[in-house]
Structures are given as C-alpha cells and as structure tokens.
Amino acid sequence: MKPMKTSNGSFGRRKFISSFTAVAGLGMTPDLSLSAQTTQPRKAGVAAPGDNHKGACCIASANGLRATSRAMGLLGQGYDPADCIVQGVRIIEDDPNDNSVGYGGLPNEDGIVELDASVMHGPTHKSGAVASLRNIKNPAMVALEVLRRTNHCLIVGEGALKFAVRMGFKEENLLTEASRRDWVAWRASMSGIDDWLNDEQRDAPSGKIWQEPNSEPGKRASVNLQPVPYHTGTVHCSIVTSQGDISSCTSTSGLSWKIPGRVGDSPIIGAGNYCDNDIGAAGATGRGESAIVTCGAFDIVQRMAKGVSPTEACLEAIDSVVKHCLKEKRHRDPKDPSRPDFDLKFYALRKDGAFGGATLFSGGTFAVHDGQTASIVPAAYRFEKK
Ligand code: GLY
C-alpha cells in the first residue's frame, strides 16, 4: 500500500509544518474549492490509504470540511486540540444552511430545536456534554465549558440552558424560516385524520395567496409543501497533534421531528464520540440509537487498541451494528431483510495520525485535513447502495 498523496505531495512532517505555518501565519485557511477531491470509494476489506497516514491530522464528517481547516489553523497557532475542533465545529453550528446541526437544525415534533453535543479531551481523559439544549446555537462550546468548569460529564435540558446562560452564552431562536417550513410540511403530512391539512386535503385558492412583504416565498401561503423525511445529520470532528494528543467532538440537532427530550448518540461518550489519548478517537453520524446500543465509538477505539486499522475498526463496528440492529424487524429493509433501513457512519483517527471512515452503504464520504490540504475522501462501506 502506498501512502495517500494529495495535490500538494506527500505527508512528510516538513511539508506539514511549512504549509501549516504559512496558513496559520497569514490567518488564512486553504482554498477548499481547489483542494477538495474525491477518489473511488472503497469496499469492505479493501485497504484504505488513510490507514497509512502519519502525523498531525484532523478528520470530520463530510459536512465538517471547513471545520478541519479551522481546527488545523488554530492548532498551528498553539491552541489546545479541544479548542481547535470546537471552534471548527462552531462554523457548522453557525451555518443556517446545515439543517442537522446548531442554528437551522431541524426541530423536534413540537417544532422546537433541541441540540446535543460532546467534547472529549485526550490528555486529561475528561469529557463534557450537553443534551436537549434549547436556544443556544453552539452546544459544543457549552460542552467544552462542562468539561473545563464542572465536575460533571453531561448536563441536560433546562439545567443545560441555565448552565449555558451562566457561562455567558446568548439565548436566541434557532429555528430558521426554512426549518420552520420543513416542520410544518412534516406535521401536515403526518395523518389525514388530524387538524393539520396536507396538500391533498386543501382546496386550491381562487386567486393569489397574500404574501407578507419581504417574506420568503412559501411562508404560510405555500400550496406545495413537500414533507422532509426523517433526518439524522450531525457533525463529528477529531484531531491529533504532532505530539499525539487527541481530542474529539460531536454536535447535532439530532433526529428531526424527534420526541421532545430524545437524546441521540452525539452527547453520549462511547456512543457518538470517544477518545483515548493512548490509542485514538472515534465518532458517529447517522441513526444515533444504533451507535448507542453498540457503544460504537468506544468499540472502534478498543478495536484500534488491538491493532486493527482505523478503516477496518470502523467496518467491524458497522458489522456489529448490522448484527445487533437487524434483530428488530422494523430495521430490516423490506426488499432485502439482510440490510438495515437506516444509515450510520463511523470515523476513526489513531494516535499516529492514521485515519479511516466507514458507512453502511456505498457513496459515503468524510473530510480530512492531513496537515497540508483539506479534502473529501470516500468512506469504506458494507453494502452497495441499490
Ligand atoms: N447521530 C445523531 C443523532 O442520532 O442524534
């Protein structure tokens, strides 16, 4: 197996430091539009180039490409690895167009955005997390405060909000107009026998429907609301320094339309996020319940401890998910009961800088900043997407 190469050449430490210094010194991040790349996806069992990488590195779910650049830039400025990834994840939390995380995240069944996040700091083996946090758009930053300023690992609901406000975070409405419209469309499509009317139940208007000046098209008046399917997006980000110090972070708005108070895997240490400074880090995105019942992130790190490569460790954890979650018939694909009807992705980063990712189905990708460039790379997978 040859080490993975990027458009800028090999992963040598000297190149890492020089590009790093240039980027950090200028306060700039690399031009991702130029460096983003994809290659052929890898099937289960086929060696993955990331398994050979050595040195400082940051990986993320595919929506976290910008997070990896920000994190590596801050690492070059001497920040703690936990701060680097939390500030990277903050970019995704702030983005109203990512409807799986932070501001603009899809709400619960009551139309209220509830956020989960966790941070784990390898050098101290300390974690911090918040769950079902309302009105605060950067739950990963609040989780880092739990880690640094409390004797606790996880604070939830009202307590998490109170803690965040005490820490100086500003309360704000996290529901964007787009997320509100998606929620209304989902609610109206739930049933034909409740008081919410869907498109089939409504009569066509006899003329134009009034739009408030400056309102977005579709606000209140839409006759074409398409329900958004259940959605489990999340951002995970892990980093390892050139000294082998590791930190990991996962942040999410959780399963869309969830029962209020539902907590996914993202704030559960060992499920959607785990890190051991002697071994590596792992995280998950996708159906959180499946990462919880298989202790996905912890499982991957333990497999790496036994010498399994990051990519294989992710694939073995995927196999464990398939084995356990198919015991429930509702999770079996009706057309092929050997396959699950949900998706889950795992990401792994080893202490020496090796990395990998795997998904249930083909077509998955993840983000990596190898010290020189940030790019999107294909994930290994268990099943060919039909
Ligand atoms: N993986 C995110 C969630 O299930 O909440």
Structure description:
The structure is a single chain. By secondary structure, the chain is α+β, with helices and mostly antiparallel strands. The chain has one domain (32-177, 228-383): (Glycosyl)asparaginase (Glutamine Phosphoribosylpyrophosphate, subunit 1, domain 1, 4-Layer Sandwich). 28% of the residues lie in helices and 22% in strands. The chain has 10 helices and 16 strands. It has helices spanning 13-26, 32-35, 65-76, 81-94, 139-149, 157-166, 177-188, 288-293, 296-305, 310-325; strands at 42-43, 57-61, 115-121, 126-133, 154-156, 235-240, 246-252, 273-276, 280-286, 332-333, 336-340, 344-350, 355-361, 365-369, 374-378, 380-383. The strands form 3 sheets. It has an 8-stranded mixed beta sheet with strand order 5-4-3-7-6-2-14-15. It has a 6-stranded mixed beta sheet with strand order 1-16-13-12-9-8. Helix 1 packs across helix 3, helix 3 (65-76) runs antiparallel to helix 4 and helix 4 runs antiparallel to helix 5. It is globular and about 70 Å long. Residues 1-40 have low confidence and may be disordered. Glycine (GLY) binds next to strand 9.
Instruction: Spell the H/E element sequence.
Output: HHEEHHEEHEHHEEEEHHHEEEEEEE
Query: What is the radius of gyration?
Result: 21 Å
Percentage of helical residues? 25-40%
Write down the domain tally. Answer: 1
Strand pairing plus helix content: what structural class? alpha+beta
| Largest β-sheet summary | 8 strands, mixed
What fold name stands as the CATH topology?
A: Glutamine Phosphoribosylpyrophosphate, subunit 1, domain 1
How many β strands by DSSP? 16
Average pLDDT reading: 86
CATH architecture: 4-Layer Sandwich
